[in-house]
Amino acid sequence: MDNVHIALGSTRHVIVAFAGFGMQLQMPPFHFFRLTRTLACTRIFVRDPHCYWYHRGIGDGLDTLEAVADYLGAVLTRMHPERTTFVGTSGGGYGALLFGALCGADRVLAFGGQTTLRLPVRNEERRQEVLGAGLASAAYFDLRAHLPGRAGRVEIHYCAGDDLDQAQARHAIGVPRVELRPHPCPDHEIAPYLRNSGRLATMMA
Length: 205
What we know:
The chain has 205 residues and is of the alpha/beta class. It is 31% helix and 20% strand. It has a single domain, classed as Rossmann fold (3-Layer(aba) Sandwich), CATH 3.40.50. It contains seven helices and seven strands. The chain has a seven-stranded mixed beta sheet, covered by helices on one side.
């Protein structure tokens, strides 16, 4: 599939990574795979070609949010992992939170991810387009109503100096099994900040 890449390894642990706008995890996809190459796991990378917070699916016949969730659920059922980690940055963080809740991820790591499309984001024009598109999946615009869902443990990491990301994270205050993790960085680039400090690979391991 054009927008799903699977690097097979041990299926005891499966990491599912969701790209944000620009098709990236705030880093090129090959950096993600290089970062996790030493982990004994299978890695799945998912991209949203529409940059629609996955509400128009990912193509290849998976044209709805629900179809993507069903596809990922079926892949994980076949692999039968002991542990699953869903991870993403920015719009991909929204994807990790959403699909982690729907697919029952053991752990979700969202980096600067949105928890609701009802609050401002950086790409306001696209957000307004999504809100006005009359999508059948509009019930998932606000993830607070769906977290943690079937997910086990949810962590939202964000830069404390970024007002938009802080507001998005604080929207999830009080949701059971959802932990907010602010970091002393000034902007939206939380994943590179954690990568450069050597903490990102450890978190995913």
